[in-house]
Amino acid sequence: MDASPPDPRRWWGLVVIGVAQLMVVLDMTIVNIALPSAQADLGMSDGSRQWVITAYTLAFGGLLLLGGRIADLVGRKRTFIIGLVGFAAVSGLGGAASGPGLLFAARALQGVFAALLAPSALSLLTTTFSDPRERGKAFGVFGAIAGGGAAIGLILGGVLTSYLNWRWCLYVNIPIAALAVAGAVVLLRDQSRLPGARLDVPGAILGTGGLLAIVYGFSEAESRGWGDTRVIALLAAGVVLLVVFAYWQGKAKVPLLPLAVVRNRQRAGSMLTMMMATIGMFGMFLFLTYYLQRVQGYSPVRTGVSYLPLTAAMITGSTQIAARLLGRISARTLLVPGMLVAACGLLWMARLDTRPQYLSHVLPGIVLLGLGMGVVFMTSISTATLGVAPQDAGAASASLNTAQQVGGSIGTALLNTIAASVSARYVSHHLVPPGPPSKALVDSASVHGFNVAGYWAALALLIGAAIAAVVVNGPATAVRVAGAPVERDAVELKKGM
Length: 497
What we know:
Blueprint: H1 10-26, H2 30-42, H3 51-74, H4 76-95, H5 100-128, H6 132-163, H7 168-171, H8 173-187, H9 201-224, H10 229-249, H11 259-263, H12 265-295, H13 300-306, H14 308-325, H15 331-349, H16 358-385, H17 393-430, H18 439-471, H19 486-496
Helix pairs in contact: 1-5, 1-6, 1-8, 2-6, 3-4, 3-5, 3-9, 3-17, 4-5, 4-8, 5-17, 6-13, 6-14, 6-16, 9-10, 9-17, 12-15, 12-16, 12-17, 12-18, 14-16, 15-16, 15-18, 17-18
């Protein structure tokens, strides 16, 4: 089958897709800095405030596979626009919330529409850019947005909270989405619904249920602890449901996630590497933000600005390193050094103390982390979606987004639990005489917990580097461009196994 000619407006389409992706990613962190203000304004309890974050990540992570397949079935442009309009509407609802319940519900609905929007955006990009040289540039930009969006969210959240109020961290999505919708209507094109396509209902129930249980389990572990009965039950149920889901996908006539998408070791290795990368990176955001605001006394704006070098380094790593080299060298040759450089950045920051150390420790650490993550994100996104049949582009995009989201949930819950337990032990060992701990002791304990968690985050990146070295073993041309014959891809898969 001959490839269709390139869309002459594809680069403007990239701008539209990038704006939408930025909105989805930054909403994972933009409310972090605004959360104390929202808690005070709406009267949230300390136990319930986590749902401002968890409601979004739970719905987003749990529904991604379903959203990706819906995009394949009804058309990516259509689901892209529906996702944008819905995301804007519920953002306005959350910004106008008069109580915690309405805000939690709005954040959950944001996650629902993000789960529809994110796979549509990536699959539109995958099917729009098939030329290897253009693809490298396009995915370099997209990778920088995917990686740097979280840091941009922290910056924007600080500015909006300081100069307006926390509600604008939600209202800001409305003009962004309106701009993206207008651009999508004019600039994007996509195939219509595929003939004979249908939704795998049992697969949707099993896959969505399994992912929801796992993401919810990790979210609850942050507050309840890993030995809690509910946490264990949720994680066990999630694993069982996903095992049954995998079995069903091999038998279903029109599976929700065609197993050929994840059986290719280049794609599977890239997705696993992405998951390990986000485990380390999202844990770092949590602790570094706390360190700068609570220990060093930074304002929300100053905290956000402190992340600017990270964003600049990620853009550099994605567009100037990975995008220029991916067509010439193998993905593994980029992924492994990228993960190692990022791990060095985390290890550098894991030597902090309570003294002001931004220039000596934080700045070098986040620059190394940003460079490495920029390379890893761009390479993983490109490799994991390359060579997928056009009708499965949404499923492949959703799988990659799921790996990223689950990694972020695991990283936040696991590393926060480690840091909290280490800090508590530090206080108990150094509290002499018994009584309420001083602020200096609390700060020292918090920084010690952050450093220990930083070592574990670096270990996650080292494991990711090992996965990339062992699993992603193909040359630069091993995974074909979108639209390549699936039969040839299957032949290469057999050779590589």
